[in-house]
Amino acid sequence: MEGKIIYFDSGGPENTEQTVGAGLARARELGLKYVVVASLSGETALKVAEAFRGLEVRIIAVTERGGGPISKENRRRLEELGIRVLSGIHAFHGVDSAATDVFGGAAYEKVMAETLRWFSQGTKVAVECVLMAADAGLIPAGEEVLSFGGTGSGTDTALILKSAGVWDMFSKDKAKRLEIREILAMPRVK
Question: Can you give the CATH number for the domain in which 39 is found?
């Protein structure tokens, strides 16, 4: 199998249209049923919803704990489109990281986050959002999903992952384990 990866010179919202287009094309080819998108303001999730209009996919918008900075208007629009909005503690910043911040030491969560950032900030975000959505029961574990992440605003990274919740991401049972199966788009790290 051959595939194409789009590499951007830098991360940021200017890459959103091309990233969403790459994700849409691959989701169609694979017949994916779930799309996860990181979206602080709701704008990126709305762009993904527009691109995927007419396809039978479930879109989950993942924002920060406490509801994030999504405006009431954007939240209303997302919900009218049938998009679930997930607010929660980031998968790579939980109790372990909170304790490490106060008491010192190394947190596995932080090591994982930094390792994924070796690829790009959006890679870390895309993986984290899938973990969160699976833990919340919004996508089934073991399902191939498309996930969009980004650097700040917009989206510049698109990945195909086999979903898992945080508890199973390192499972000894390979069938339960999280997998990054394809990179569709990402910025080059400088």
Answer: 3.40.1380.20
